[in-house]
Amino acid sequence: MQLSATQFTGNAFVPPSKSYAHRAIIAASLAYGTSLIKNIDLSNDILATIQAMRTLGAKITVGHTEEHSRSVLTITGRNNHSGLQIPLIDCHESGSTLRFLIPVVLSLYKEAVFTGSPGLARRSLAPYQSLFRQKSILWKQQPKQFPIQLKGQLYAGDFPISGKVSSQLISGLMFALPLLEATSTIHVTDALESKNYVMLTMDVLQRFGITIRGEDQFYEINPEFYHSADFQVEGDWSQAAFLLIMGVLGGRIAIHGLNRNSNQGDRVIESILTAMNGKIYWEKNVLFAEKSELKAVSVDVSQCPDLAPALAGVMALARGRSTIKGGKRLRDKESDRISSVVGLLNQLGAVVTETEEGMIIDGVPTLHGASISSHNDHRLAMMAASLSAAISGEKIDLAQASAVAKSWPDFYQTFKKLGGQCNE
Q: What start-end ranges are recorded for coiled-coil regions in this protein (predicted)?
């Protein structure tokens, strides 16, 4: 796909939070009664979670609203058992689906099989493997390949687990442990990275009748029933990051649909861009971003790793030397997001040096066109498109542009509405 833009201006509606949507769908599917989950974008990852919960016995119907083409899910929770002896869960490319549902399925069944894309199979599940070995659960898998065959069942107790690989593993236990017969504890044995995502999980669980006590390293979870609830999914701050960099690099964009008091950790993008001298401001409930003369900053992304591609892109055009650090987990995403981001930006004329846990970025005045690949990574594809206004008179030729369907299927429609051009 060829991408170009001279400026970005206009109104944009941020897509619903994928993080909230995954969690609300799972909680509603485990609940007694019927829930309405509103403001859903049927991205590939969300479709994977819907399919998985249907496999486990939830009844999920999809309705549509005229407002921004969003969907409404009507979910009637599973009645204790779907009737399957050995459920087969296809997670496609969704790491959230896989990591959230492994412990959930083990709390409900004695055997299960998980499968998905080859890229997903390469993402680390080591803390689960170690934990479940202690729990006498058989984990059968060829290294970094699907299928994963599980045999055994979770019982209440203490669950020591590393928090360094992904907070999704702690969230998965939080979904599962209320389903057990007695009180359980989660003991995070080291640093908990992306803590805000765990807080987000606790927020959703509370809406569906589950109360988790504790914080940081220790959580106590009593057996409780999930209760149905109606849930409105708020806008996604990690996707808003790309709209914000379009604004500060290429014009003036008004972003609608964000919660300015959100629990999403990626809300920090607002303060980071402000620190870079970005013209970011609110008018009532609308967030504006205007073209700015940006300056370099240093950012630790250990608590907001999904922002790294957007930040790297905007830092490439900021005056001075910027650094991204704390990004070790970026190497375990849809692509190795350190190597792939560095390579893509340098192809466009940026000056970026790879480090073990991040990158060093020396800002340049402009970028140039090139033939690049998203590495089938949705955030790299959106980053490349968002930079196109900084490429004067040239185009980006982006391979694997369709990767955006993983999280934001309508991204290119929004891109064009704001002034971008894209040709297949």
A: none
Architecture per CATH, 2-15+235-423: Alpha-beta prism (3.65)
| Reported pTM | 0.92
- Return d(Cα 129, Cα 151) in angstroms, integer: 12
379 is annotated as contributing to ligand binding: yes
Q: What CA–CA distances, in Å, run from 287 to 162, 234, 260, 409, 410?
A: 37, 14, 9, 22, 20
User: What pLDDT score was predicted for residue 138?
Assistant: 96
In eight-state DSSP terms, residue 136 is T
Catalytic residues: 306
Q: Is 337 marked as a binding-site residue? A: yes
The DSSP-derived string for 207-257 is: HTT--EEEETTEEEE-----B---EEPPB-HHHHHHHHHHHHHHEEEEEES
Fold of domain 18-232: UDP-n-acetylglucosamine1-carboxyvinyl-transferase; Chain (3.65.10)
The conformation of residue 14, written as its DSSP 8-state character, comes to P
95 assigned ligand-binding residue: yes
Task: Over range 31-51, report the average pLDDT.
Answer: 96
